[in-house]
Amino acid sequence: MPNVKTKLLTDEWVTATWDEYIEAISDRNLENAKSYYHKGQLRIEMTPQGYDHSYDNSLIGYCVQLFGGITGIAMSAVTNCTFRRGNEVEAQPDLAFYIGENAEIIPPNTTIVDLNVYPPPDLVIEIAKTSLSDDIGGKRMLYEQLGVREYWVVNVVRALLIAFAIADGGSRQITQSQVLPNLPFSLLEEALRRGRESGRSQLYSWLISQMQAIGN
Q: How many CA atoms lie within 13 A of 44 on its CB side?
């Protein structure tokens, strides 16, 4: 598969069969990369993630889990987990959450989550710095096919959150979460902005106070 291999490092969608995709991601040099497969195309993201991308990833994950803990919403969170459906589609989102009745549905010894056996995550989040156009385009269609209930994209450059509700194989942009209805997007964006300012060590105590106010 020379054509596929020569294009793997471009962080773009490359036409490939499922077998070519599986062979590509088995390369030890790509074991730290994120990989996706959708409609006969693969994407392997090799771009090193900087501090800002990693910080937003950690912060948004913390916000969602803190909200669940304070409000009593059952959930389980995973980072860079592989979700696969047959030989058709695969994704490794930055963050994914099973919420409510699905919180304990994936056994703890699971490696790749087989979506022919288990349901897709309720919420998927991608942290976008250099991949924003693809995250709100190609990956959104991928998550439509996977059947996740809600998809968020964090715009690292502008400290903004773009969210989509997914149903019946399509999606629409939303300004209020459907899976976490009392969690304001404005609060998450304020947290992202505060994370770019001085006094980051105070951010978490501020978040706790804000979440407790919502929980009450």
A: 24
Phi, psi of 136 (to 5 degrees): -90, -5
> Confidence class of residue 5 from pLDDT cuts 50, 70 and 90?
low
Q: Strand, helix or coil at 146?
A: helix
Look up the pTM and report it. Answer: 0.93
Instruction: Count the residues in the chain.
Output: 216
**Burial status of residue 114 (CB atoms within 10 A of its CB: 0-12, 13-18, 19 or more):** middle
Radius of gyration (C-alpha) of the chain in whole angstroms: 17
- Count of beta carbons in the 10 Å neighbourhood of residue 29: 9
Secondary structure letter of residue 47 according to DSSP: P
CA 183/CA 176 separation, integer angstroms: 8
